[in-house]
Sequence to fold (276 residues):
Amino acid sequence: MDDTVIVGVDGSPSSLAAVDVAAREARLRGARLRIVHAFSRPADLDPMIHGVLAQVEQRAHDRTPGLEVNRTVASGDTLTVLRSEARHAVLTVVGERGHSAFGALLLGSTALQLAAHGHGPLMVVRGRDDPQGPVLLAVDGSPAGDAAASFAFAEAALRGAPLVAMHVWNTWSEPTPYEAPADPLSVVVDLDQLVERHRRVLEEAVAPGRAAHPGVAVELRLERARVRHALLDATREAQLVVTGARGHGGFAGMLLGSVSQALLHHADCPVTVVRT
Fold:
């Protein structure tokens, strides 16, 4: 990876908002900003280059003085172009919705497909304007969550923000008993055992990040609740939520988990999906 933050721009209001966020993210990292536009019809290219893209580049300069900004315009579908650019970026930023024939969709197809098939961390700009609060880490204890935890701690350190590591569980989502019962026919759930097990999941998830970033204040939040609802509620007080692409549960072939999808569709702050 090089020191570049890329942002996908198609001229939609959502993508223009993403440029402002991407410029701030580049400044935080001491990185350059690359504005990326994919086109399929050459007739649309000249107005975009000399109109929207020129204005967006100037806007990034004006709002973030001293930031190095450049543009990439490539022929092809948006997903392919952004995936290619993301291979060498520290972060990819997109708006929640672009220009589409399906204007009523909660989340654009490009954002969803990049979250499932892209490279590196993807930030989808959505929710409140200029959100404040801690960095929220969605912990599920899966191996895929390790990269998300590392990213979340680094983000909190960059922003000078506290980190809330949140692990939500419930008995009806438990895939299997953690210890085989003496009686195979027993259906009794040992809640104390489950609570302790999930507490360990949470503590183990944050241990490497705490060691790497001792200056980050960490709040461990363990909740027994409906997972998606609890996390979405927590995004109302966060400046950013970080999640892995796919955690425990669901179908093994899925590239994007249901919790990640729920956050991408409904979170009240930007969402970063971290792929391993």
Q: What stands out?
A: The helical segments are 13-29, 45-63, 78-86, 109-117, 145-159, 191-212, 227-234, 258-266.
